[in-house]
Amino acid sequence: MSAPVDVVVNTHGFCFDGAASAAAFTAMLKRTKSEALSFSYRSCGYGPKMNQVPAAWLSGTINAILDFRYTEHPALTFYFDHHKTGFGSPEERSAAERHVRGTGRHLHFDPAYGSCTKLVADVARRDYGTDLADLAELVRWADIIDTAGFPSAESALASTPAQRIASVIEHHGDAGFLTSIVPILIERSLDEVAAHPIVTEREPAIVAARNDTERRIRASAERRGDVVFVDLSGDVLAGSGKFVTYALYPDSVYSVMLLRTKQLIKLGVGYNPWCGRERRHDIAEICKSEGGGGHAVVGAATFALSALSEAREAAARVVKRLEQ
Cα dist. 169→82, 87, 118, 217, 293 in Å? Predict the structure, then answer.
């Protein structure tokens, strides 16, 4: 009996769409390959130490990059992404598409998609004849969460099973955690995953940290015209504060938040989809100019812990651009 084929899945770490994409891709490959497969997962994160996938991570017989910036390497087999900044330039995208011809590489890039998970599911059905209908709930929630497709800021802060799972992934989405949760996301409903110890045992600390972060955001948020600016880079934060500024200032158009984690300083930028006003700026392009990337409506850039002054200068530039 031959050994299983080694599949390495490099996906956006600490991100619900990244984990869901890995689940959808894993299910697709299992259903389209006749041979036995052995999967391992890598957690990719945009930051001062990673702008592309390290070459050493493309070490399988089959190698995939999902929901993350393109990396040219002869060992790359599958690429799925939906970020406007997935390619560094039009020339890089053209070169990647040329490399596909006559090779076994599969490149699927479409920035019109709200989530990479939905892109994987649609491509699985259209190009590989594999229906992932049993993962429809996972696909739907990946799209909602990655596009902030909630009816209100308050509902974005709710605790549905999917949002609880997303919160845990955002805090624990390293390679080891992905290896544990991806099979569960494939095999169980979101209600069942949310009731699993992999979620429930991690939740209390996350909820406490989130409540502390929300309190600090409420105390520090500054209104600057259409922009709400929050600088919490002075101390390490353990919780996420997404959407809190939109609940505080429902008519604000943009949010700019500077946060410090144990690993880096993050500059997060977003458009308030519930403000009732038109978005005037492409946030992906703004973040790209600061060394980051993302989507037209949300993006980020990251800085080393030693680069606080540079991060604050970048935040000031972003606020100024959004005020125009």
Answer: 20, 25, 18, 22, 21
> What's the mean pLDDT in 236-254?
87
pLDDT at 198: 98
234 and 269 assigned to the same domain: yes
Q: How many helices (H) and strands (E) does the chain have?
A: 13, 11
Enter the pTM of the model: 0.90
Are residues 218 and 186 located together in one domain of the fold? no
Residue 49 pLDDT: 57
Nearest residue to 94 via CA among 75, 70, 67: 70
Q: What is the DSSP letter of 3?
A: P
Examine the fold and report which residue of 200, 231, 249 is the final residue of a domain before the chain moves on. 200
pLDDT at 47 over 70: no
205 located within any domain: no
Helix (H) / strand (E) containing 6: strand 5-12
Return the pLDDT at 1. 60
**Residue 198, both tokens:** 């992999």
Residue 206: inside a domain: no
Q: State which of 200, 226, 252 marks the end of a domain.
A: 200
Question: In the chain, what is the straight-line distance between the N-terminal and C-terminal CA atoms, in Å?
Answer: 65
The first and second tokens of residue 135, run together, are: 């993962």
What's the domain range around 266? 211-323
Model pLDDT for residues 154-183, shown as the tens digit of each residue: 999 999 999 999 999 999 999 999 999 999
Per the CB < 8 A criterion, the answer to whether 227 and 323 are in contact is yes
- Residue carrying structure tokens 């992932």: 132
pLDDT at 314: 97
Report how far apart, in Å, the C-alpha atoms of 315 and of each of 130, 228, 255, 262, 318 are: 44, 12, 11, 19, 5
**Amino acid in the structure at residue 268:** G
pLDDT of residue 241: 77
CB 268 within 8 A of CB 259: yes
